[in-house]
Amino acid sequence: MSDPLPAGVVDRVEYDVERGKIREFTRATFTTDPVHTDPAAARDAGFRDAPATLTHTVVAGHQRDQRAFVDSLGLALARVVVGSVTWTYLRPLTAGDHVVGTRRVVDDVQREGKRGGTMRVVALETEYVDAVGEPVVRLEEVLIERGEQR
Amino acid sequence: MRTPAKVRVGDAPDTRVVGPISQTDIVRFAGAGGDFNPLHHDPGFVATTGFPGVIAMGQMQAGILAGWLSDTFGVEHVRSFGVRFVAPVLLGDTLTLGGTVVTITETNGESLATLDLVASGDKGPVVTGSATVVVAAA
């Protein structure tokens, strides 16, 4: 489909940040600031176009093959939960941006679960860069694979 | 750029109440975000999983909490936003979103506040989190 990924990279996602999708995501998260939905309000506030909401990178879910990603890590999808997610903003993501996110494994450990059994904790980091290669937003995720029930 | 908010340590800006969460809210978020795991919309599938009913995707309540944060402080002033998923959100839950300023530090002439955040459902916290936000100098 595309070039093979370098070692440690689990997937790469590419997408265009669109006004319509920002509007849709803004409504779905009960966000009310008009800068997200009204380009004139956005410009008045100093943005070059409508800024995306803080967790807009979730939209990359549309472009991703989650099953292939989970399979590539050797995780059992039914036992995987997301423990935590942190976004770091280097500048606001804005309508018209074309971004590429590269997701890497930064930690992968086994731990004793509270209720017995071993759980696996995988830490991932995704850096989104814009069309000129400048970082825009960084995402850290911790996935937990619970131990099998006995 | 808009003027940053003026806050002090200990301040807790007005909370927001969202809900009761409906299946439509969850489907709307699925459409916006692209998460079509049947756990979030298919009661027949949910019955095989051990959950008491359809649950919202964690990213929905994370996004709703983020919306409260950016509506309160301005999206351009938020430097980081982090969440931890504590408990599932079920249909009919009402969410209360809010946070408290815990520290304010001056870095390179900029005032940066850290906030403790929480989204609570009917039975307690569902998401806890923290954020770093540019605020007006005291």
TrEMBL record, chain A:
Entry-linked InterPro entries: FAS1-like_DH_region, HotDog_dom_sf
Pfam families xrefs: FAS1_DH_region (PF13452)
Domain of life: Bacteria
Boundaries of every FAS1-like dehydratase domain copy: 11-137
SUPFAM superfamilies per UniProt: Thioesterase/thiol ester dehydrase-isomerase
Signal peptide: none
Protein name: FAS1-like dehydratase domain-containing protein
UniProtKB/TrEMBL annotation, chain B:
Superkingdom, natural source: Bacteria
Annotated signal peptide: none
InterPro entries in the cross-refs: HotDog_dom_sf, MaoC-like_dom
MaoC-like domain: residues covered: 8-108
SUPFAM superfamilies linked: Thioesterase/thiol ester dehydrase-isomerase
Family: Belongs to the enoyl-CoA hydratase/isomerase family.
UniProt protein name: MaoC-like domain-containing protein
Organism per entry: Rhodococcus opacus (strain B4)
